[in-house]
Amino acid sequence: MMQPLTRLFPVVAAAVLALSGCVDPLPPRWHDLPGTVRLDLGLHWNGAPMALGDTVTDHLGHPVTLTNVQFYLNGLELQDLDGTWHSVGDIRLVDFNRDAPTVVEEVPPGTYTAMRFGVGIPKALNTNIDPASYPNDHPLSFQGSSGMFWTWSTGYIFLKYEGKAGTAVGEPIEAPISYHLGTDLSYRTITLPFAYPMYVTARQVLPIPVAFDGARLLDGPAGSIDVIEDPVSHNAPGTELPDRLLALLETSFYLP
Asked: Residue ranges of the chain with pLDDT lower than 70?
């Protein structure tokens, strides 16, 4: 004989309640899931892509071949339509010796109008910390820093810009160029407004090309540098050549 529905209801309800205790909470709504921003870092010279090992000509007519360009990119932030900055990144080492360096960070969905990041290491992490305390794949470890560390007292090298130059086109390219910038006072913040608002959607990747222009580090609104007369700087701010390099660094990045 069939059971009346009214008698079955308590049994069904109890079974549902029992099962619900084993089910995970509801997943986040789709639009609450993060998206991803991928910075595609490119090495440029006077606005055009270049590669390490290429021979180019600087503002004074010197042939230049860059052999090593590395820098620390720290604390990527994005600015929303209200002007609020959102921190989305950590410390990354950008090394143009590697193919197509990228920086990938999760980002809350939204519309953004600008980005900014530091070039260098924050003061709290720059000195008096043993690089051996980091795992090998961390950008501040001995292995992960790829030679971008001086000593415990002076800290990390924020930027390396190395190569060779000649006195004139057609002359041997033999004079060394070696610019190393570091110490706490060398930390610089780069702000790059977007040409139009960028919209980040959930679970989607937004690629953003970012160029470092090697020519701009030698010549720009803040002055110019003669790589033959001033080929080496491994100093902190407060001396003339490093101060010029740091001023030029601030205009060496752009969005192509």
From this structure: 1-31, 152, 236-238
